[in-house]
Each structure stands twice: as structure tokens, then as C-alpha cells.
Amino acid sequence: MAESKTTDPAATEAGEEKDWTATKAFFDSLKTNQPRPPKPQYAVTIAVSSRSLFNMVAEGKIYKEDGVEKYVAYQQEHDNEPLMPGVAFPLVEALMNVNAGLRRLYPDSDELFDIVLMTNNHAQVGVRLINSINHYGSWSTLSAILQCYLTIERFCMTGGESPIGYLKAYMTNLYLSKDGEQVIEAIEEGIAAATTFASGDVENQLSDTQLKVAFDGDAVLFSESAIIVKQHSLDTFFEHETEFENKPRAQGPVKCFLEALGMLQRKFYAKNERMTCPIRTYLVTSRSAASSGVRVLKTLRSWGLEIDEALFLAGAPKGPLLQKIQPHIFFDDQMFHIEGAKELGTIAAHVPYGIGQKYHKGIFTEQPAKDTT
């Protein structure tokens, strides 16, 4: 009778660790002409829905009118027909341009933008999505001129279920979708998110060499403050901001994205490329500079963040200024600003946060100081 062999658990664990290390080293050594996705823990991860990245209006109509089975069948029948670019497509191209610059300066760095396609589509629809990405990766303007590629390697296809639960697992810094309810879910989970809207009939000429991102201030970068105006008066708000100009505002839902942009900007500055940095940021706010602008700028300073251009409009329409800036995306919490931006050709993203929104639970709002005299 054969003797049974005893196994040393420590030796087994050491052997498995050695095998894993060898396997990882093997995959890391594989060569490819395509840039590798950065490690998620170091990357700035942008999760984009399929309807934001691609124009899927016709496909969406089939889904609504004929149901999911015919929708999936239609997508499979058109596997090799590339989807047309959607509202977030120019932004993603601009992000790839920034990555090309970072890889030139820091070949081994993982501090890059990483795009995740986050969709509740069925996995079978993924064939057309992948083919579309590969199509644009092979001929896009940026690929030809800047030798960078539209590469999206990370996908999340949830087959009809909400993908929001996966955002944290993918270490998402920003989520862009055309589904407003899912955007609200993401914000409730503490993730920067916005609903994307295509520009109107006017089409702005976006930069191929510089990523331009414009932000509103209150309820976007900063905490909500409109409650003071609504419950008291504009003069009370001005007095409050002057009194507390040295007290930093609390952060808003999209502050972390500006922070991530600033981190990547500083990598270009460190190589003496401040003047040619391919990232430019804008603050476009309805605030008045003299009456309530100082606190905003001091708050950014206290956070250690720079904004390249600050535009205080004192209530004037934002659309004409945005048309001049031509950002790849503009974040605002008020739909009338979104509509005004869209009409003049700006790609806008609505941040549903603040007292005027459907979602306002737990939002930090400031109250005017009580009169103790």
C-alpha cells in the first residue's frame, strides 16, 4: 500500500507565490506596439457610457420600440459597421492626446488617463462596440498626426443591470453618461459624475492638441451656496462671502476631477512645458468678481489647485464665453446654463447636485452667520 505524502502548507504557499510572480513577469515582458493600459491605482480613470462615446440614437429607438431581443439582434447584424462618434468622443480623443505627451516625457509612468467603457449593454453588443473602437483607433486624426491611439481596453457590460456598482471597483474618477438617473446614483456613491448633452446646430472647432475643460463653481467644484440667496437675499450672500473669504469652501462633486487634471498638469510643468501643456482648465462662474470672487480663488489656493483662466460673469450668459473657449466639456449644475451652452455649440455635462436638483440629500450647504448683536 502506497504511503500518503504530507504537504507542507508553507511550502505550497511559497510555490504558488513563485508561480504567480513568474506568470506576472512573463505577461509584463510581452511586447506590443499598442500602449499598455496604466495600472488603475495610479491612473485617472474616466468611465464613459456607450451612448456618450457613440451616437446610438437609432439603436436606442429600436430598443424602446421593439424591445431588447430585436435590439441585440440588430447590433449583431451590424457587428462590422462602426458606430458614429458621440458627444464624449472628442473628449476621449483629447485625453488620448494628453497620454501621448505623458508617455513621451515619462515612458514608464502609469499616471495617465484610463478610459473604461461602462455600459448596461448585453455582452453580445460588445462585438460592435469593440469593432467601433478599433476602427477609430486605426484612422483617427490624432493617430495620424500625434501617433496616439483611441485605445479602450477596459469594458464593463452588465446586460441590462445598472453598472454603477462597478464604478468604485474600476477606481473611477469621473463617470459620464446620458442616463441622468445613473449619474445621480453615481453621485450618491461619492463619485464625480455628469450627464452629457450634445451641442446644438452650431459646431465648434475643438482643439486637436489641447484638452480644454471648463467648470462652473458652486455645486460643481465647490459646495452649494445658493440656499443663502434663495432664503435670504443676494446682498446677504455677498456679505457672507466677504465675511468668510478666508474660510475655504467645502468641496463639490467634481472637485476631484480638477484635482486629477492638476496632478497631470504638474507633470508637464516639471519638464518645463508649462506654456505648451496639453491641458487647460477654466472656471466659468455666474459670480461677481468684486462681490464674491475672492473666496473662490482663495479656496482653490488652499486646495493647492491652479485654474488656468477664471471668468466671473456677474450673471451674464455663459454661452458666448464658452463659444470662445471651445472646451471639450463644460460642467454646470444648472440646466439653463447647459441649454445656453448647447445652443452655441458647447458640449455640456449636467451635474445634478444642489438644492435645485432632484438629488440634494446630505449636500453641504452654507448658512449665513447669525446676528449675535
Automatic annotation (TrEMBL):
Gene Ontology biological-process annotations: adenosine metabolic process; nucleotide metabolic process
A Pfam family the protein falls into: 5-nucleotidase
Membrane-crossing segments per the record = none
What cellular component terms from Gene Ontology apply here?
cytosol
Q: Which GO terms describe its molecular function?
A: 5'-nucleotidase activity; magnesium ion binding; nucleotide binding
Q: Which top-rank group of organisms is this from?
A: Eukaryota
Query: What are the boundaries of the region Disordered?
Result: 1-20
Q: What is this protein called?
A: Cytosolic 5'-nucleotidase 1A
Organism of this sequence: Oncorhynchus tshawytscha (Chinook salmon)
